[in-house]
Structure formats: C-alpha cells, structure tokens
Design a protein that fits this description.
Layout lengths: L1 H6 L12 H25 L9 H11 L8 H22 L3 H17 L5 H12 L2 H4 L6 H20 L12
Helix pairs in contact: 2-3, 2-8, 3-6, 3-8, 4-5, 4-6, 4-8, 5-6
Length: 175
C-alpha cells in the first residue's frame, strides 16, 4: 500500500530556463497554422465552419512539442478522424446526451489506442461532435472531413514547413 501511495507523490521536476528562440518558433507555427485555417474559413469557406476547439490543442502539440508521439502526422490525422467519426456516430444514435458524450470520448480513446494513433485533441473532436450545437451537428458525417480532416491537414503542412526552418527542430520524426 505504501508503494501504491508513494507513486502518487511524483518526482521533483528540474525546471530549465525557457528557450526564447524555441518559443518564438512555436509562436510562428501557431500564427501561420491557425491563421491559415481562420483565413480559409473567413474568405474561402465563408458559409462553412473550419475552426473547432480541438485545433487549439493540436497547435500546442504540432508547434510547441513537435517531437511528441502525439504530434506525429499519423496520430494527428488518423486519431482526429477516427475520433470525429466516433463522435458523429454517438450523436446520430443517442443525440446530445450524457451517454453520447461518454461513449464518444471513450470510444475515441479506444479507437486511437487500437490503431496506434493517440492524439489527445482527437477526444475533444469527438466531444465537439456531440455537444458542438447545431452548426457542428448539422454537418453530420461531413464533420470528420471538414472541419477535422481539412483543418488537421493544413496544420500538418504548416508544421512540416515551419518546424523544419529551425535548425534545432525536425518534423516529423516519423510518418
């Protein structure tokens, strides 16, 4: 029992001095990635939604933690798409109910783990598919393609271009 409780204490974290250059590369990636999605949504797809909340978390992974396994292209695309499909299916079957929310998130986690494509913002995409309101739920089975698929693809292209401009970064680590 002591070992079990001892694991909950954690370890003391050694804080490093923030790297301003790395932070600025992360900022640049987020500005270009989210800026591209916002511009396309406003100018090209003026009647269609291209922005969802999970893209904020995807931006953190792609631009601030590009070495993370969760930020690799397979995880971003497949994890997000599978999660969005799970969310739409749960909404279609159960509506915007607590059970649909529970199943959408838990099924998205199961699918991502089984396909080795865990991307934490994917679970948010599943959640949004259920509770996103009429603008999202009205997209039905288009939701996994647009906004999720197209938005993730745009952010991935930007991540490849911007992260590789920095000498100390390499993205992706694997496809």
């Amino acid at each position: 029992m002591k070992t079990y409780l001892g694991k909950m204490r954690g370890e003391r974290l050694q804080r490093e001095t923030p790297d301003l250059v790395d932070a600025l590369w992360s900022w640049l990636g987020a500005v270009v990635g989210m800026g591209a999605i916002c511009w396309l949504s406003a100018h090209w797809l003026s009647q269609h939604l291209l922005i969802v909340a999970s893209f904020g978390a995807t931006s953190v992974l792609l631009y601030a933690a590009p070495e993370s396994p969760f930020a690799q292209p397979r995880n971003v695309l497949l994890g997000s798409l599978l999660s969005a499909v799970a969310g739409v299916a749960c909404f279609q079957l159960l509506g915007a109910t607590p059970l649909a929310v529970t199943l959408a998130v838990s099924l998205s986690i199961l699918l991502m783990q089984l396909t080795h494509s865990v991307h934490p913002p994917g679970a948010a995409a599943a959640l949004v598919a259920v509770i996103g309101g009429p603008e999202i739920t009205g997209l039905g089975w288009w939701y996994p393609l647009m906004p999720i698929g197209i938005g993730c693809a745009i952010m991935l292209v930007v991540a490849v271009l911007v992260n590789n401009l920095a000498r100390h970064r390499r993205y992706p680590l694997h496809w």
